[in-house]
Design a protein that fits this description.
With 403 residues, the protein is mainly beta. It has 3 helices and 22 strands. The protein has one domain: Beta Barrel (Porin), CATH 2.40.160.10. InterPro entries: Porin_dom_sf, Porin_O/P.
Length: 403
């Protein structure tokens, strides 16, 4: 299914017809299940201060040096619909909950699963279907509509495992949890595959209104399936086809990922950081590979709101004053290193400064400035040109509507 004008128009009309509220649209009670409808529409704009590479090219043909290739379109910007997510949810009968989500922009299924809450406890359940894996980052497990920055961190986008079909068991309480899952391929055809398992544990020894301290750890191990694994990072701009940092591995067997995370909220301030490391087992005389990365970020709610906490992730609250909205300032340092021995995937460091405005209950506007530094010891070959480093600066904007 491709995104059409009719599809998007239907989503927007349904949302506009809904009351101005943060919650989903209640549809009906069917078979004892309270059915509701949610949606998320995002449009992004990027403007590049190009160094050597034409990141504004509309296709992967931009993977050529602009001075020697006709593939570059001469533009230093990109603008496109980023997401068009349509989600049906159901509560009941009994302790059963279900969700059916689809991204009409990316033509893929989102969460498609059924959950059974044991004893009615929302943090003690069994889940079957497609869902975000517990081996993903804290940032990935948080709600997409409340991303702190336009682009998620490099470890989330490069080392994190996306949604997969599987079975999951979670046991915990309001301030701690343990999760284990076994998974296979992604539900959408020709997407991610390779079976594996994931574990995550977290604990919030301090968990009260406006005062939260959270720590957690995760482990994921998976088969690389086709005996090949490609780890690569965009320059902190999600829709860019070019990846300067790129480790293309063959003769791979299994890959494991270890992550640690920490979160601190005090009133209108939130500090968050994560580290992730991957180890890839290879055969046929090829050396094993290791790569890692981390980020540290800080958010300040200028209008005084704080954050909530649910199921081991932070929750962004509604504006205290809907007309004024919720204003945030954010700063993040991010790094990833995909060079190990003979595999020269490169290294990327970036600093992102941003401002977010949540207006009323259904709108969000974001503006980021990103300074990126990328290096590869062996150089990055584009056409007949070798580029030892590339350091673009990016201005990113996002308009978001959700219900």
């Amino acid at each position: 299914m491709k995104l059409t004008r009719c599809t998007l128009a239907a989503a927007l009309l349904a949302a506009i017809a809904a009351p101005a509220a943060h919650a989903e649209i209640a549809i009906d009670v069917i078979g004892g299940s309270e059915v509701s409808f949610e949606g998320l529409v995002q449009a992004d704009f990027y403007k590049f201060d190009t160094d050597h590479i034409d990141y504004g090219a509309d296709s992967a043909g931009g993977n050529s040096a602009c001075s020697t290739s006709t593939d570059c379109d001469g533009k230093d910007y990109l603008q496109e619909l980023r997401r068009a997510e349509l989600v049906l949810k159901g509560k009941g009968p009994g302790n059963i909950e279900w969700v059916l989500g689809y991204d009409a922009k990316d033509d893929k299924f989102l969460d498609v699963n059924v959950k059974y809450k044991i004893g009615g406890n929302g943090n003690h359940f069994i889940q079957v279907g497609q869902f975000k894996q517990p081996g993903a980052t804290l940032e990935e497990l948080s709600s997409t509509k409340n991303n702190d920055f336009v682009s998620k961190s490099s470890i989330t986008n490069t080392l994190g495992t996306p949604r997969r079909v599987g079975v999951q068991y979670n046991y915990g309480d309001v301030n701690w949890g343990l999760t284990a899952s076994y998974f296979g391929r992604e539900l959408t055809r020709n997407r991610e595959h390779g079976s594996g398992y994931a574990l995550r544990g977290y604990w919030a020894p301090v968990n009260e209104a406006g005062n939260i301290f959270h720590i957690g750890a995760s482990y994921l191990d998976k088969d690389t399936d086709a005996d090949a694994l490609r780890l690569r990072a965009r320059p902190m701009a999600d829709m860019v086809p070019t990846r300067y940092v790129d480790a293309n591995l063959n003769r791979t067997d299994r890959a494991s990922f270890v992550g640690v995370e920490a979160l601190w909220v005090h009133g209108p301030v939130k500090l968050q950081g994560e580290y992730m490391k991957t180890d890839v087992k290879r055969y046929g005389g090829a050396d094993d590979f290791s790569g890692d990365g981390y980020y540290v970020s800080g958010l300040w709610n200028l209008t005084g709101e704080t954050w909530g906490y649910k199921a081991g992730v932070p929750v962004t609250n509604l504006p205290d004053n809907p007309d004024k909205g919720l204003w945030q300032l954010g700063l993040r340092y991010d790094t990833i290193d995909l060079t190990d021995g003979a595999v020269v995937g490169g290294k990327m460091d970036s600093i992102t400064a941003g401002v977010n405005w949540y207006w009323r209950s259904n709108f969000k506007f974001m503006l980021n400035y990103v300074a990126v530094k990328q290096k590869r010891a062996s150089g990055f070959k584009l056409a007949n040109v070798t580029i030892p480093e590339d350091n673009p600066n990016v201005i990113e904007a996002r308009a978001q509507f959700y219900w």
